[in-house]
Write a structure and sequence with these properties.
37% of the residues lie in helices and 16% in strands. The protein contains 16 helices and 15 strands. Strand 1 and strand 2 form a beta hairpin. The two termini are 35 Å apart. Bound molecules: pyridoxal-5'-phosphate (PLP). Pyridoxal-5'-phosphate binds next to helix 5.
């Protein structure tokens, strides 16, 4: 049945969207179940992106819906400052039990952006409190995405997200990104070339002095700029350099957490543990907004000094650990476990890899990369119109019945972890034909 389309699309200022282009030809979603969305005109759309890298268990899962409904009926809201409710403590305990040691404390936020800003603040405050207030410099990476807050765009490395927004945070540097078509095009899984790029951190230590850098933040796999898989040895090297110089390592796992790479977290997949981890998206299967920052016991304990009545960290949000989000988070983690969804993602990886690399050879495709249940399919930009091929692919896929995400001319795929092999074939058939029909 067709859902009526609102006749005035003007008032809503859409985020990260070409508002005028969209409103001239809207793509409205009105329902979602398991692997599919439903469009306003009643078509089924195969979800090739888990919403926005977040609906890892698939859409409309009754266990999660019921948990949210029950919680709304029982207690809609509880203030998180100087008060608590049981599910916040339970979720923190469950979450930290899933995370690698020593990440055993959780601070809740409402989004990935807030998680990143929180993590940067914790890193700076940690050094301040542990006798190294001179460590104020934050290191991000080119092509990194860490949300849309001022902290996140400062350490982030995407130019349009940074320009026009003033001076941003001071004392920030960026490592080079690891994307290199000459060396690594069509790599399957982790590329062989590029581990040495982590050595740039040593150059920054030499430049600023050994006691100047507070933290390095990276996405273990950079998602938003088109699935940039860490080269072999790269994350290990970053960890070692951070250890050698007392620098905190922050993994932004907003995308890579909760099974996306075939393990609980990228840290587990790659065997490299950060000091701080940021999470969001799959934490609640996106049913209620929520983010989290996990920290090591050593960081947490650094704040737990002074008189008991003193607030240790002057930071938080009205909706930190919102009861509906906690209920959704608990139901989501239980579902991941009950259905072994992380293991399922791992067991699908080789089928997925073969399917996505099957698009090699299509016209204009200059790279295909993958890890876990993600893929980046990069097309050459059209002369004088970068991004147009990507946009046309998005529209063509949507019209043919699949939701994909594009960044520039790269198609990024990240389906829910419940995807069936036949649906992988269907998704890649739609994507291939979209690419073939783009000039
Ligand atoms: C790695 C990473 N960090 C942070 C964010 C920001 O999350 P949010 O949009 O929930 O603020 C994103 C969003 O895509 C992300 O991919």
């Amino acid at each position: 049945m067709d859902t009526p389309i609102p006749n005035d699309l003007g008032a809503f200022w859409m985020p990260f969207s070409a508002n005028r282009q969209f409103k001239a030809a809207p793509r409205l979603l009105t329902g979602a179940k398991d692997m599919h969305y439903r469009s306003a005109n009643g078509r089924k759309i195969l979800d090739g992106t888990a919403g926005l890298w977040c609906v890892n268990a698939g859409h409309g899962r009754p266990e999660i819906t019921k948990a949210i409904q029950d919680q709304a009926g029982e207690m809609d809201y509880a203030p998180p400052f100087q008060m608590g409710h049981p599910k916040a403590f339970e979720l923190a305990a469950r979450l930290t039990a899933m995370a690698p040691d020593p990440l055993n404390h959780a601070f809740f936020t409402n989004s990935g952006s807030e998680a990143v800003d929180t993590a940067l603040k914790i890193a700076l405050a940690y050094h301040s409190r542990s006798g190294a207030p001179g460590r104020r410099r934050l290191i991000g990476r080119a092509r990194g995405y860490h949300g849309a807050g001022f902290g996140g765009i400062s350490v982030g490395g995407i130019s349009p997200n940074r320009t026009n927004f003033g001076g941003l945070l001071p004392e920030v540097d960026h490592l080079a990104h690891t994307h290199n078509l000459e060396q690594n095009a069509f790599s399957r899984g982790q590329p062989d070339w590029g581990g040495h790029l982590a050595e740039e951190l040593n150059d920054l230590v030499a430049l600023h002095g050994p006691g100047a850098i507070a933290a390095v933040i990276v996405e273990p796999m950079a998602g938003s700029t088109g699935v940039l898989v860490p080269p072999k040895g790269y994350l290990e090297r970053l960890r070692a350099i951070c250890d050698a110089h007392g620098i905190l390592l922050i993994f932004d796992e907003v995308i890579t957490g909760f099974g996306r790479l075939g393990a609980s977290f990228a840290a587990a997949r790659f065997g490299v543990t950060p000091d701080i981890m940021t999470l969001a998206k799959g934490l609640t299967n996106a049913a209620v907004p929520m983010g989290a920052v996990l920290v090591s016991g050593e960081i947490f304990d650094t704040f737990m000094d002074g008189p008991d009545n003193i607030i240790e960290l002057f930071h938080g949000y009205t909706y930190s650990s919102h009861p509906l989000a906690c209920a959704a988070g608990l139901a989501t983690l239980a579902l991941y476990e009950k259905e072994n969804l992380f293991e399922r993602a791992a067991s699908l990886e080789s089928y997925w890899q073969s399917a996505v690399h099957g698009l090699q050879g299509l016209e204009n495709v200059i790279d295909i990369r993958d890890i876990g249940l993600t893929a980046g399919i990069e097309m050459a930009p059209r002369d004088g119109a970068p991004g147009m091929r990507g946009y046309e692919a998005l529209v063509a896929c949507f019209e043919a019945g699949a939701l994909v995400r594009v960044t520039g001319d790269t198609i990024a795929l990240s389906p829910p972890l419940i995807i069936a092999e036949t649906q992988i074939d269907e998704l890649l058939t739609i994507v291939a034909s979209a690419i073939e029909n783009i000039s």
